[in-house]
C-alpha cells in the first residue's frame, strides 16, 4: 500500500529533507543552536533533535504548518540580519497560537530546498482526499506500532497499538479481530492485512443501522432510497432528489455502484463525514450575508491589546500577535502608543514590564496582513498616550505607510446620517481615536483630562487598577492637546465620552463611538437593555476587558452581543471558552470578521431586550433535540502509555439569559476510540438568532476536574438538522482529525 498516491518522496527537494540537514534553530540574539532536522518516510512528519539530547527528539506534522516565510520575515531573524544573510533564513509558521520556528540553513541551496520542499508537502497534505487521508492515518499507526521495523505486526505490537489509539479491549476480542485479519495465518499482519484489521476495528455499527433503515437489500442505497433519507432524516426538502445524485457522484468510491446511481455503505459513511454531512451548514460557511448595511448593523471580530502574546504585565509585545489576530479574521485591532526615547512612538502596555515594539513596524505589519483573510475594513483602535510631537510622527507614519489604504475623508463628502457599509469600505483601514471638533477649536472638551480612551473610562470603573503615568509631564506640556495631523485622520470612528442614552438619542452623531469596560457594559445591559440595543443600531460601541484581568483572561462576549455591541474586544492570545464563542460566531459568512446582526437589532425603534425575548414581534421559540450517538478516535489527554479516556459530551447553549443552559451525557469507561452514548439532550431556544451551541467532550475524573478533550461551537442558525458529524477542535481552535462526534439533531417549533 502506498499512502501517498503520487510519490512525493521522489521530488528532489523532498529527498533533501528526507536525507536530513543540520539547521540552526534561532530564538533570540543569544539563543541559536544547531538541530538535526529531517522529514520521515511518511512524507508528513518532521523530526528533529539536538546533538546532546541523547535519545530524546521532537516531531511535528506538516498539517500543523500553515506557511513558510522566506528570508528575514520574523522579528527574531530581522534582529539577526547582519549575522545571517536573508538567503539562508526561513520561518515555519504554525496554525493556532503555536510560536513560529525560525531556522537558518548552512547554504542558500539548502535553504531553498527546505523552503520549496516544505511548501510541496503542505500542498500535498492539503489536497489529499478523504480516502488518502484515512490511508495516511492507518499508515501512520502501522509505522508507530511496528516497533522492530520489520514491516509486520505481531499480536503484542497490536495490543500496544490499541492502547496508543485510545482503545481498551479485552485480550479475547482483540485476538479474535487479529485472527480474522491474519488471512495467511502467519501470526503477524503485513500492511494490507493491517488495513483489514483497522477496517474491522473502525466498523461503525451505528452508521450501518441508519443505512439498513433505508436500504432495501442491505447492500446499497438506490437513488430513491437515498432521496428518502435526505428528505426525511436530513430535512433537505425539495432539493433531495438533486442532492442524492450529487452526493453519489461526489462521494461514492465504487464505480459499479455509481453506474447504478446507488450508494454503498462506504460511500454513505464518507458522505456523513464530509462537509455536507457536517453539523455546520456549508452554505453559511461562505460569504452569504448582505454587506451593504451600515457598519453599526454588524458584529465585528475584535481584539484587545492586540500587541500582546501573553499576559498584561510582563508578556512580550510582538508584531506576530497582530499577524495571528488578522489571520483569524479579526477586523478591529488595538494599538497602545507611548512616547519612545528617540522621538519614535512605541507600542506596549503602559506602566508594565511588557516589551516595546515600534509604532511604525506595527503599521507596516498592518499594511501587509490587513486584508489577507478578509477584504472588509479594519478598524485601528488607537490608545494615544503620546505628546504632541510624537502624535504628529504617528500621523506621518499612518499616512506614509498605509497610503490610500487609510481612509482620510468622507466617502461622498457629505456629513453622514448613518455609517457607511463594509462593502463601501472594502480594503480600507479606519482610524478610531479622539478628534478635534472643528477647525477653530483647540480641542474637544473631553480631552482635557486624558487623550486615551480606556483610561478615561477606567477612572470611573471599579475594576481597573490605578495607574501612574510617566508621560504625564509631556502631556502637561502640550496641555493634553491632540495633534491636528492625527485628528484629521479620524473620519467615521471618533472616540467620545459616553453621556447616557438620552443624550445620544438627541445629540449624538452616528460617527461618534464610546468604549466601555466589561463591568460598565454589563451594568448598562442589565439596567437599560432595550436602550442599549437601540443605541447600537446607529452607533458603534467598543467593549474591553476589565483592568484586573492582568492574566489576559477574557469575559463572556455573549452578554455584549445580546445588546447589539459590535466591537467586543477579546484577548485573542488566550484560548478557552470565550474565544471558542468568538470563533463560533465568526466562523460563518466566509470568516470575514463581519456578521450581520438579527433584524430586531437593526431597527432603531426595536423594543427587544435580552431579558424579555417573548415580547419580540414574531417570537417563535424552538425545541432543539440532540441525540449524541457516538464518538470517533478522540485524542488522548494523558500521553502516559496505559492511560485511556472516559469521555462524556456536554452541550452548552449561550444566548439571552433565558437560553443559557447545559446538559451532559453519562461517561463511557475506557474508550476514546469509538464510544457509544445514544443519549438525547433537549433544549428550548427563545432567541434562536442570538444563540450559540457548544459541544464539548471531556475526560471524566471523579476525583478532580474533568480534562478537556475537544470542542466545537457554532451559531444555532448555522446548524444542519439530521444525522451529522461534529469535527472537533483542540483547545487552541485547530482541527484534530479524525476526531468527531456523531449526532442526530432535530429542530422543531415549540407546541
TrEMBL record:
Its cofactor is Ca(2+). PROSITE patterns: C2 (PS50004), EF_HAND_1 (PS00018), EF_HAND_2 (PS50222), PH_DOMAIN (PS50003), PIPLC_X_DOMAIN (PS50007), PIPLC_Y_DOMAIN (PS50008). Ca(2+) 3 binds at residues 305, 334, 336, 383. Ca(2+) 5 binds at residues 699-701. Residues 602-730 form the C2 domain. It is found in: Cytoplasm; Endoplasmic reticulum; Membrane; Nucleus. Residues 451-470 are annotated as: Disordered. Glycans are attached at residue 184. GO terms for molecular function: calcium ion binding; phosphatidylinositol-4,5-bisphosphate phospholipase C activity. Residues 15-123 form the PH domain. It is a peripheral membrane protein. It catalyses: a 1,2-diacyl-sn-glycero-3-phospho-(1D-myo-inositol-4,5-bisphosphate) + H2O = 1D-myo-inositol 1,4,5-trisphosphate + a 1,2-diacyl-sn-glycerol + H(+); a 1,2-diacyl-sn-glycero-3-phospho-(1D-myo-inositol) + H2O = 1D-myo-inositol 1-phosphate + a 1,2-diacyl-sn-glycerol + H(+). InterPro entries: C2_dom (IPR000008), C2_domain_sf (IPR035892), EF-hand-dom_pair (IPR011992), EF_Hand_1_Ca_BS (IPR018247), EF_hand_dom (IPR002048), PH-like_dom_sf (IPR011993), PH_domain (IPR001849), PI-PLC_fam (IPR001192). One of its GO terms (biological process) is intracellular signal transduction. It is an enzyme of class 3 (hydrolase). The active site is at 304, 349. It holds the Pfam family PI-PLC-X. It comes from the Eukaryota. Keywords: Calcium, Cytoplasm, Endoplasmic reticulum, Glycoprotein, Hydrolase, Lipid degradation, Lipid metabolism, Membrane, Metal-binding, Nucleus, Repeat, Transducer. Residues 133-168, 169-204 form the EF-hand domain. The keyword Cytoplasm applies. Substrate binds at residues 432, 434, 515, 542. This is Phosphoinositide phospholipase C.
Amino acid at each position: 500500500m502506498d499512502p501517498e498516491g503520487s510519490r512525493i518522496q521522489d521530488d528532489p527537494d523532498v529527498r533533501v529533507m528526507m536525507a536530513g540537514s543540520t539547521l540552526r534553530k534561532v530564538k533570540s540574539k543569544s539563543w541559536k543552536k544547531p538541530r538535526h532536522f529531517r522529514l520521515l518516510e511518511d512524507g508528513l512528519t518532521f523530526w528533529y533533535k539536538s546533538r546532546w539530547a541523547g535519545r530524546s527528539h521532537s516531531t511535528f506534522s506538516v498539517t500543523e504548518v500553515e506557511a513558510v516565510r522566506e528570508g528575514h520575515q520574523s522579528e527574531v531573524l530581522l534582529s539577526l540580519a547582519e549575522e545571517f544573510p536573508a538567503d539562508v533564513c526561513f520561518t515555519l509558521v504554525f496554525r493556532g497560537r503555536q510560536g513560529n520556528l525560525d531556522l537558518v540553513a548552512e547554504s542558500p541551496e539548502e535553504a531553498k530546498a527546505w523552503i520549496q520542499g516544505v511548501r510541496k508537502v503542505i500542498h500535498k497534505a492539503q489536497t489529499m482526499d478523504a480516502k488518502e487521508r484515512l490511508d495516511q492515518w492507518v499508515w501512520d499507526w502501522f509505522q508507530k506500532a511496528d516497533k522492530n521495523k520489520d514491516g509486520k505486526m505481531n499480536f503484542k505490537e497490536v495490543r500496544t497499538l490499541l492502547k496508543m489509539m485510545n482503545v481498551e479491549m479485552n485480550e479475547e476480542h482483540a485476538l479474535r479481530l487479529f485472527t480474522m485479519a491474519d488471512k495467511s495465518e502467519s501470526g503477524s499482519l503485513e500492511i494490507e492485512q493491517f488495513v483489514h484489521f483497522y477496517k474491522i476495528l473502525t466498523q461503525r455499527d451505528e452508521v450501518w443501522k441508519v443505512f439498513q433503515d433505508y436500504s432495501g437489500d442491505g447492500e446499497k442505497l438506490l437513488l430513491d432510497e437515498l432521496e428518502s433519507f435526505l428528505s426525511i432524516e436530513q430535512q433537505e426538502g425539495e432539493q433531495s432528489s438533486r442532492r442524492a445524485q450529487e452526493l453519489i457522484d461526489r462521494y461514492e468510491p465504487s464505480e459499479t455502484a455509481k453506474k447504478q446511481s446507488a450508494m454503498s455503505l462506504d460511500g454513505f459513511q464518507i458522505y456523513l463525514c464530509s462537509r455536507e454531512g457536517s453539523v455546520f451548514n456549508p452554505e453559511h460557511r461562505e460569504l452569504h450575508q448582505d454587506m451593504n448595511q451600515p457598519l453599526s448593523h454588524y458584529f465585528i471580530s475584535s481584539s484587545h491589546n492586540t500587541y500582546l502574546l501573553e499576559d498584561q504585565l510582563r508578556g512580550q509585545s510582538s508584531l506576530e500577535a497582530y499577524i495571528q489576530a488578522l489571520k483569524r479574521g479579526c477586523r478591529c485591532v488595538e494599538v497602545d502608543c507611548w512616547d519612545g526615547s528617540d522621538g519614535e512612538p512605541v507600542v506596549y502596555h503602559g506602566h508594565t514590564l511588557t516589551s516595546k515594539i515600534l509604532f511604525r513596524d506595527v503599521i507596516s505589519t498592518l499594511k501587509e496582513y490587513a486584508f489577507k483573510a478578509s477584504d472588509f475594513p479594519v478598524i485601528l483602535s488607537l490608545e494615544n498616550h503620546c505628546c504632541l510631537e510624537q502624535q504628529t510622527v504617528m500621523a506621518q507614519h499612518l499616512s506614509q505607510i498605509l497610503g490610500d489604504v487609510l481612509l482620510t475623508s468622507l466617502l461622498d463628502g457629505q456629513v453622514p446620517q448613518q455609517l457607511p457599509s463594509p462593502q463601501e469600505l472594502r480594503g480600507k483601514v479606519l482610524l478610531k481615536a479622539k478628534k478635534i471638533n472643528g477647525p477653530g477649536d483647540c480641542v474637544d472638551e473631553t480631552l482635557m483630562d486624558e487623550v486615551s480612551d480606556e483610561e478615561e473610562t477606567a477612572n470611573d470603573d471599579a475594576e481597573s487598577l490605578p495607574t501612574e503615568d510617566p508621560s504625564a509631564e509631556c502631556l502637561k506640556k502640550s496641555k493634553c492637546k491632540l495633534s491636528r495631523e492625527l485628528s484629521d485622520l479620524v473620519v467615521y470612528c471618533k472616540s467620545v465620552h459616553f453621556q447616557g442614552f438620552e443624550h445620544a438619542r438627541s445629540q449624538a452623531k452616528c460617527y461618534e463611538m464610546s468604549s466601555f469596560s466589561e463591568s460598565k457594559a454589563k451594568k448598562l445591559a442589565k439596567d437599560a437593555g432595550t436602550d442599549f440595543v437601540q443605541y447600537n443600531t446607529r452607533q458603534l460601541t467598543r467593549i474591553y476587558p476589565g483592568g484586573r484581568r492582568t492574566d489576559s483572561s477574557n469575559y463572556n462576549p455573549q452578554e455584549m452581543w445580546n445588546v447589539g455591541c459590535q466591537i467586543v474586544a477579546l484577548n485573542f492570545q488566550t484560548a478557552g471558552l470565550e474565544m471558542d464563542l468568538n470563533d463560533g460566531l465568526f466562523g460563518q459568512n466566509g470568516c470575514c470578521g463581519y456578521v450581520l446582526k438579527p433584524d430586531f437589532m437593526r431597527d432603531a425603534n426595536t423594543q427587544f431586550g435580552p431579558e424579555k425575548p417573548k415580547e419580540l414581534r414574531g417570537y417563535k421559540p424552538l425545541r432543539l433535540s440532540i441525540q449524541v450517538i457516538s464518538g470517533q478516535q478522540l485524542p488522548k489527554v494523558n500521553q502516559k502509555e496505559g492511560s485511556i479516556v472516559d469521555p462524556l459530551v456536554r452541550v452548552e447553549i449561550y444566548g439571552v439569559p433565558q437560553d443559557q443552559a447545559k446538559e451532559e451525557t453519562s461517561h463511557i469507561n475506557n474508550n476514546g476510540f469509538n464510544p457509544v452514548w445514544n443519549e438525547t439532550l433537549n433544549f428550548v431556544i427563545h432567541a434562536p438568532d442570538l444563540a450559540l451551541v457548544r459541544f464539548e467532550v471531556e475526560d471524566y475524573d471523579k476525583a478532580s476536574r474533568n480534562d478537556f478533550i475537544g470542542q466545537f461551537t457554532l451559531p444555532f442558525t448555522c446548524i444542519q438538522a439530521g444525522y451529522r458529524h461534529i469535527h472537533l477542535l483542540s483547545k487552541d481552535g485547530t482541527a484534530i482529525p479524525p476526531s468527531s462526534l456523531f449526532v442526530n439533531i432535530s429542530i422543531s417549533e415549540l407546541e
